[in-house]
Design goal:
- By secondary structure, this protein is of the alpha+beta class.
- Helix content is 36%, strand content 12%.
- Strands 3, 4, 5, 6, 7, 8, 9, 10, 11, 12, 13 and 14 form a twelve-stranded mixed sheet that branches. A four-stranded antiparallel sheet has the order 20-15-26-25, with no helix packed on it. Strands 19-16-21-22 form a four-stranded antiparallel sheet, with no helix packed on it.
- A hairpin with a 2-residue loop joins strand 23 and strand 24.
- Helix 28 packs parallel to helix 30, helix 35 packs antiparallel against helix 36 and helix 45 crosses helix 47.
């Protein structure tokens, strides 16, 4: 039966006694294996199989009972986490504008104040200062490798110095060298057989060559030479592992910010007509034809000359600079082939319809100006008269449209003719628009339009467009529906519009991608955007987008705009003269004329804000359509008196005596609030013939007021649309109701009117719970927009239960359910997720926004006082002093409204009691003492609660220990001060949840875990509990809940991994990250017990079902937990397992060789350090788990684990490469302590020796046999190190084993279990070399002392394999491989062309391949007999030394890259060989004074093998 390895004995396949009996029989009493079997004694009860986790050490207790011996320095820092490990940082949010957008001062309601706070308060960020030192941010990546490789010395090798002759000549010289005897050459130099000695220069004499020197002096000198100029970081010379984004890396979410789509800068340069007789006013807007939607607000611009503008001077006193803009930045979130830029022109109202007014522009030509001078003067005089009399009124004039994507796709032409004459794209299949995954949903983005070019607006060349033709505006075709028909028609080749007679003009426009930070820019609210160097410069306006589809981005800035869009009016049935109709729009806060508010944005060349706006007039039309858009700045707080007043006027175009300029012909209005909610949408309003009566504003015009006359018998005759873009008004009935009830609780205002309901205090609880439950029915878009405020309010309801009708209402459960529902909706419908399935919107909320609600209800937050302020670092340190500006008021345990109760506790214990809150939830379903660790149970904080209170809680019902009297409750005017801790309540609700709620929480467990961790950290800081020991930080009930939670989730992972792997992977990773976070804040021994709980459940499942998927999940879990930045400290690197400083080598004898290690206590400590013993795994807990997993998975008899070899090796490789570059471990003594955690790796790799890839196979000529099929004696004869001979020389009997311990003796037998890939073997060997390089030499010496000859032989074989693995390949090899790669790519290209052109099909290719008829690759010789295999990366021996190429780039490397690769490879080979020589030196020093020890013969033979390879020989041995 095949030999089994040391660690395999601990894999629990059968009972321990049978295992020992079986293994003892197989190995004939192999000392190390028997030693591994029962560590620390010979009783089976003490052995714990490697598949099971041992009982962890009580970490905190250990630190208390083992005070550090070292006072300070790097070693001292290994013992405990640094004091400044975690920071709570308040960072002012970046403001785009010079002035922050905030509501105007006034009596704003609670909701407005909350919104303003939410949009202005500082980010609250928990910063783990040393987090970047964990393996998740391993510097052993390609982008950082070159930085670490700077300054490497150039190593010179003989293989690079050989003249570049043909390979045939190389072979001949090689044969000549081998056939030449020493006697044939005077000096025995290989060069003598090639060069003419008579003409060659003599070598320089070697000084002191024959001088006598003591051996100790020679050893010391050699050691100095080896140690000099060594590269400190071994992994900097080793390429990074070929793997995707590390699973243990948590990407920091993006900062929440205002959303912008792809931005387009449009500059309006000039507008010129054939004749210039009057001012022309222009506006731009974007329209999406397919969606039939206007997708931007209007941008009004004025290109008139100053002389022309002066015609309107009586009507425009002064123009604000913000209205003089001629450039606009448009944002397009959903660019498509259906987007048009529509330009509308208006002129001053005059007598006559549009056709008559446009006629001169179509008839007169600029070239005929002299001939038509008199007519033009007459027209100009008429225009001046109209401007003076009717200057405030406009009339539609002309329009045109630009197909935006035509410009973008063909940008580059500088001057263009009429846009309509540009070639239109043919219909070619489907169009897929650009996806912006951070803001759009999975199902909301698929759209199909014509065209197949890219819709990117960010990279096209700027274009200057000249529009030469405009269409006359038809008076009866002003509606948006008519416009969409025209735009659709424009894309047809036979456009009806082409046959129309155009108005000739020249409009020059620049269209380009908007710069990232344009200067002199104004927001839609006219706030100046940074940078804004000079307020006198003509600004650029940002044009607000009306997205074609929903955008899912949380609100981050204050915005409160209203757009009023009159659409049509029907006065056909109105009596009297009403033909030239305009609508005056006013925003009123009362019913008097003076109550019109100056909140209407001006258009162009006018004042910034006005009190009224007029629609354009269609001449002699009793039922006009409108295309106007009135933009209003909404007041932050609205009342029942706020309304929009529409006044309809008939404008007299002819000047007649006794005829007023405007005659009111109707009135209507829209109240802004209805039952407390903003009214928006489409309205069809009746119009009153008379001025509305008193108190009309609180009623709708639909209500028939007595005594009033209405147009058309009170039917709706005026169509208008009201749209809001607001971060105050949710526009969702469910959200409105929820916020209204929460604010009613805050202000204790009853009854509450919501819709048609009057909610009294006695039914408020039921309504509040119903409104929380109904949040799942709200629209997703407003939920996302108000996500931060919504989650804040739900958290507030959990930690500050409201008092309703004198009773505390526990809303923890219903709030938890609502949060689970919201989180799952976002996950389901939004695509913005990282590799761990974390929604970016939610993770950014946790990272930046979430904070514990302040204990003082009057303070907005526990952050810095006020709404802004500088950065404050609240460092979690023992000496931390909180800035005075932090308006915390965190110690008030009772409401300040009660004058009889002190506001400040008298002691820290009182403070703690005030914070540990009431738990009014049934605990009968919760788990208690789920996790048991050795030692005392996890105690609660001494000041957490009284004994009687704890007894009450443990009995199943957590009630407050505070005495809340009736008189106290009567004094409350809202909600109790903070009575509950959010993380405690969250854990409790999660544990007791069931059904769909629990399933929802499991689906997004990461969210609740991260929320809990941030709550814990905030709680520890704000209560100054960082001074207390970790065991006393949390009450026992919370520890029980966490233990129960981890236990049940581990159970879910084990039970569901075969049914729903995607969910289980997310759950597994989330749990691992949670425990990783807890290691920073909780009792670390308790967290180790949680890890053990998980491990135990997975092990039990694996025992019953050998499944590599479950093992892979456990590996992911372990890798994430082990990525903690203080991983080394968590493993107690200075524990009692550490040996004395200078262990004395024991006397070697045949007896000690056969019996393994010495039985002394000191020897046992050494043994425990090199084996996965129970003491080792207990004290170095995480390292023990990592190495145990490595041992278990690399076991050749582990069923189905072969595919996990690379994964488990990469875990170890990642850890070691991280340690190697960690500045904290730069000191050699510290690094030796770190290496001590990995000493068992040496034994594990020795046992895996037969499975490692044989790097010596291609170098048979250098002494190692690579052939198979020979018998043992032949193999021994050919072997450089024959085990039989070596043991005979040493006087040791040859053990009768079923397979030789040296893997090189019989390759055929030793490969029966399958080899590792070259890449995995290489990674494992570099890890071994790192341990040998950095481990304490005295410890290694002591262990080598106790190795038997067979074990030593195996170690030497392993070192020889390392030599072959990291052998320098030479520059010529790199160049040759590069050329082969190039030739291979050309061959692949030729075959691909052949397949595409049809000369060979896939079927014929497969048949030819199967029959071996494919032409052999010229690089086949590099792969042995693998010519018919596909290109396999694990067969590519030089792949590990080459940089990973971007697949889009060619694989052929430049000369500089090849030189760099050779430099790295040479340094790696040098360092590897020096490590091996260091190790050999230690072995040689083990028995310096005993003649019977014959290890020297073995080592001498080993060194002889090394010297045979010219690629290992340094041309200059004196260098390093």
């Amino acid at each position: 039966m095949a030999e089994r390895r040391a660690f395999a004995q601990k894999i629990s396949r059968t009972v321990a006694a049978e295992v020992r009996k079986q293994i003892a029989g197989q190995y004939g009493g192999s000392p190390q294996l028997l030693k591994n079997l029962s560590v620390g004694g010979n009783t089976a009860s003490n052995a714990v199989p490697l598949t099971e986790a041992v009982e962890p050490v009580d970490f905190e207790e250990y630190l208390l009972t083992h005070p550090p011996v070292v006072e300070s320095g790097p070693l001292r820092d290994l013992l405990e986490f640094p004091h400044d490990d975690i920071e709570v940082v308040y960072v002012p949010r970046e403001c785009r504008t010079l002035m922050q957008a905030v509501p105007e001062e006034g009596d704003n309601d609670a909701h407005v104040r909350d919104c303003a706070r939410s949009y202005t308060e500082d980010w609250s960020i928990v910063n783990r200062k040393y987090h970047k030192l964990g393996t998740g941010f391993n510097p052993n990546t390609l982008d950082k490798q070159k930085e670490r490789q700077k300054g490497l010395p150039k190593q010179v090798f003989e293989s690079d110095e050989i003249p570049d002759v043909s390979s045939y000549q190389d072979d001949q010289d090689d044969l000549k060298r081998r056939s030449m005897s020493i006697d044939d050459t005077p000096r025995g130099s290989w060069a003598c057989s090639i060069f003419d000695l008579k003409n060659s220069m003599p070598d320089a004499l070697l000084p002191h060559l024959l001088d006598r020197a003591p051996n100790e002096e020679i050893d010391r000198h050699n050691e100095e030479q080896r140690k000099a100029h060594r590269h400190r970081e071994l992994f900097a010379l080793h390429p990074a592992l070929d793997e995707d984004e590390p699973i243990e890396r948590h990407s920091v979410p993006d900062v929440p910010k205002e959303h912008f789509g792809q931005r387009l800068l449009v500059k309006c340069l000039s507008l010129k007509f054939e004749i210039e007789i009057e001012p022309i006013f222009a506006s731009l807007a974007l329209y999406d034809v397919k969606e039939k939607k206007k997708i931007s607000e209007n941008f009004f611009f004025d290109l008139n000359s100053e002389q022309t503008k002066s015609m309107l001077r009586p009507h425009i006193q002064s123009a604000a600079i913000s209205t003089l803009a001629r450039s606009g930045v448009f944002s397009i979130t959903y660019p498509s082939q259906d987007v048009f830029l529509v330009i509308r022109l208006e002129k001053v109202l005059q007598q006559g319809d549009i056709g008559e007014c446009a006629e001169p522009y179509m008839v007169f030509k600029e070239s005929d100006a002299a001939k038509n001078k008199e007519k033009l003067e007459k027209l100009r005089a008429q225009s001046e008269q109209f401007c003076q009399r009717l200057g405030r009124y406009r009339m539609p004039f002309a329009w045109t449209a630009i197909h935006l994507m035509n410009i973008v796709n063909s940008a580059g032409s500088l001057e263009r003719d009429n846009e309509l004459e540009m070639p239109l794209p043919e219909r070619k299949g489907s169009w897929s628009e650009r996806r912006n995954s951070s803001i759009v949903g999975r199902r909301s983005l698929e759209r199909t339009t014509s065209g197949d070019e890219s819709c990117s607006l960010t990279s096209f060349r700027p274009a200057t467009l000249t529009v030469t033709n405009f269409f006359k505006q038809e008076g009866d075709r002003l509606s948006d529906e008519d416009l969409y028909k025209f735009l659709a028609d424009m894309r047809r080749p036979s456009s009806v519009l082409r046959r129309l007679r155009p108005i000739t003009a020249q409009l020059k426009i620049d269209i380009s991608p908007a710069p990232e930070n344009p200067h002199y820019c104004l927001t839609p609210e006219l706030l100046q955007v940074k940078p804004y160097p000079d307020s006198r410069v003509r600004p650029t306006r940002e044009i607000l987008e009306f997205p074609a589809k929903d955008i899912y981005v949380p609100n981050t800035t204050y915005r409160n705009l209203l757009y009023v869009k009159p659409q049509s009016l029907n006065f056909a049935n109105r009596q009297g003269s009403a033909r030239n109709i305009t609508v005056k729009v006013q925003f009123m806060n009362g019913e008097d004329a003076s109550n019109a508010m100056p909140v209407i944005f001006g258009k162009s060349s006018c004042s910034e804000f006005t009190r009224e706006a007029y629609t354009a007039v269609v001449y002699h039309n009793r039922s006009p359509d409108f295309h106007d858009e009135v933009k209003i700045k909404l007041p932050a707080s609205l009342t029942d008196h706020h309304h929009i007043l529409f006044t309809f006027y008939h404008v007299s175009c002819q000047q007649k005596q006794n005829t007023p300029l405007e005659t009111p012909v109707g009135y209507t209005w829209i109240p802004m609030l209805q039952n407390g909610r903003l009214r928006t949408g489409h309205f069809c309003l009746p119009v009153s013939l008379e001025k509305p009566p008193q108190s009309y504003s609180v009623l709708s015009p639909d209500v028939p007021l007595p005594g009033m006359k209405w147009v058309d018998n009170h039917r709706g005759v005026f169509n208008v649309e009201v749209v809001t873009v607001s971060t105050i008004h949710t526009q969702d009935q469910y959200l409105d109701k929820f916020f209204a009830l929460v604010h009613a609780l805050d202000e204790h205002m009853f009854p509450v009117r919501i819709g048609d309901m009057r909610i009294m205090e006695n039914n408020l609880e039921a309504e509040l719970k119903a409104s929380i439950a109904a949040l799942s029915s709200s629209q997703l878009e407003p939920v996302v927009r108000f996500l931060h405020l919504l989650l804040d309010k739900l958290v507030l309801l959990v930690v500050r239960p409201p008092v309703i009708a004198g009773q505390i209402v526990n809303l923890g459960q219903v709030s938890f359910e609502a949060m689970a529902s919201i989180v799952n909706r976002l996950h389901k419908y939004l695509d913005a997720q990282d590799q761990h399935g974390r929604n970016s919107l939610l993770s950014s909320y946790i990272h930046y926004v979430f904070r514990l609600p302040n204990m003082d209800p009057n303070s907005p937050s526990p952050g810095p006082g006020g709404l802004g302020g500088s950065v404050h670092y609240a460092t979690m340190a023992r000496s931390a002093v909180r800035p005075a500006s932090l308006n915390l008021n965190r110690s008030r345990s009772l409401s300040n409204s009660n004058p009889d109760i002190s506001g400040t506790p008298t002691s820290p214990d009182d403070e703690v009691r005030s914070i540990i809150g009431s738990k009014g939830l049934d605990r009968s379903n919760s788990w208690v003492n789920t996790v048991g660790c050795k030692g005392a149970p996890w105690g609660s904080s001494p000041g957490s609660a009284s004994d009687s209170s704890q007894a009450m809680e443990r009995g199943g019902n957590r009630m407050s220990s505070h005495a809340e009297t009736a008189s106290f409750l009567q004094t409350l005017t809202g909600r109790l001060p903070t009575k509950k801790l959010f993380h405690e309540e969250l854990a409790l609700q999660w544990v007791v949840s069931s059904g769909s709620v629990r399933e929802g929480a499991l689906q997004q467990a990461w969210f609740f875990f991260e929320l809990m961790v941030k709550s814990i950290i905030h709680h520890l800081y704000f209560t100054d509990r960082l001074e207390s020991p970790r065991k006393n930080r949390f009450p026992e009930r919370f520890m029980d809940d966490i233990a129960a939670l981890v236990s049940t989730i581990a159970g879910d992972i084990v039970s569901r991994f075969q049914k729903d792997l995607e969910l289980v992977e997310r759950l597994n990773n989330s749990l691992a990250f949670f425990l990783n976070d807890l290691l920073s804040v909780m009792d670390r021994g308790f967290v180790f017990c949680l890890i053990k709980t998980y491990w135990k459940q997975v092990s039990m499942k694996l025992y019953a079902l050998q499944n590599p998927t479950l093992e892979s999940l456990r590996l992911d879990f372990l890798r994430i937990v082990s990525s903690h930045e203080h991983y080394v400290t968590l493993n107690l690197p200075c524990s009692l397992l550490t040996p004395p400083a200078s262990p004395s080598p024991s006397v070697s004898s045949a007896t000690s060789q056969s019996s393994g290690f010495s039985t002394h206590v000191q020897d046992q400590k050494i043994a425990n350090m090199f084996e996965l013993s129970v003491p080792f795994r207990e004290q170095h807990y995480l390292a023990g788990l990592v190495l145990s997993e490595l041992a278990v998975i690399l076991d050749p008899e582990a069923d189905g684990m072969f595919g996990l070899h690379k994964k488990v090796i990469s875990v170890v490789h990642n850890l070691l490469s991280s340690h190697d570059s960690d500045p904290r471990y730069a000191d050699s003594e510290v690094k030796a302590r770190v290496a001590m955690l990995y000493l068992p790796l040496i034994g594990i790799v020795m046992e895996t020796l037969p499975q490692l890839h044989d790097f010596t196979e291609s170098h048979n000529q250098w002494g190692r046999p690579g052939t198979t099929g020979v018998d043992d004696h032949e193999a021994d004869a050919n072997s450089m190190i024959s085990q039989t001979v070596a043991m005979a020389i040493a006087g040791t009997p040859v053990p009768q084993m079923s397979r030789p311990s040296s893997f090189l003796l019989n390759p055929q037998n030793t490969r029966q279990h399958g080899s590792f890939s070259a890449e995995s073997s290489r990674s494992l060997l570099i890890c071994l070399l790192w341990v040998l390089k950095n481990a304490d030499e005295m410890v290694l010496q002591k262990w080598f002392t106790d190795l038997s000859v067979s074990q030593l032989n195996r170690l030497l074989d392993l070192l020889y394999l390392c030599v072959s693995c990291f052998e320098y390949k030479g520059k010529k090899t790199f160049e040759r491989m590069n050329s082969l790669t190039f030739k291979k790519s050309k061959d692949m290209k030729a075959k691909l062309e052949e397949a595409i052109l049809g000369s060979i099909g896939a079927r014929q290719e497969m048949v030819r391949r199967s029959r071996g008829q494919l032409e052999r690759s010229p690089s086949g010789s590099a792969f042995g007999s693998q010519e018919n295999l596909r290109w396999r990366k694990d067969m590519t021996h030089w792949r590990q030394n080459s940089e990973k190429m971007d697949k889009s780039q060619k694989a052929v490397r430049t000369r500089a890259e090849l030189e760099h690769e050779a430099l790295i490879d040479g340094n790696l080979a040098t360092e590897a060989n020096l490590i091996i020589l260091d190790t050999l030196e230690i072995i040689v020093q083990v028995h310096p004074g005993h003649a019977e020890d014959n290890h020297h013969l073995i080592i001498a033979t080993f060194c002889q093998g090394l010297c045979q390879s010219p690629s290992q020989r340094r041309a200059f041995w004196g260098g390093s």
